[in-house]
Amino acid sequence: MSWRDFSYLQYGTVRQRAAYDCLSTLGVMETLKEFHPTLVSTICLDIDVATSDLDIICQLDSPQIFTQHLQTAYGRQSRFKLFPFNLMNSAVIAEFVFRGFTIEIFGQPLPVERENG
What we know:
Number of helices: 4
Strand content: 15-25%
Radius of gyration: 13 Å
Largest sheet: 5 strands, mixed
Strand order of the largest sheet: 1-2-5-4-3
Order of helices and strands: HHEHEHEEE
Shape: globular
Number of strands: 5
Structural class: alpha+beta
Helix content: 25-40%
């Protein structure tokens, strides 16, 4: 199994199973596939706390295209916020709530293995 495949969560703790259902229903990995999405949340490791979110890191080539993609795909989600690309951290970040989870999508112009997310 690839470390990028989060399907193992469906057999984990109650919270991990809920996270799997959340992300599967949302279809986030398919929606973001061109950006190499990778789940890096503490929930995956079962070291989460009550306020832990689902962190998804992505590789982007164009901050403008990534920002537009996030706005189109998730702009109508509850509490959607978008922090556009800036030179300080060279990242685009979107955050919203779905099925009780805060989801944070973090994109940088780097392979996901080298990102700060």
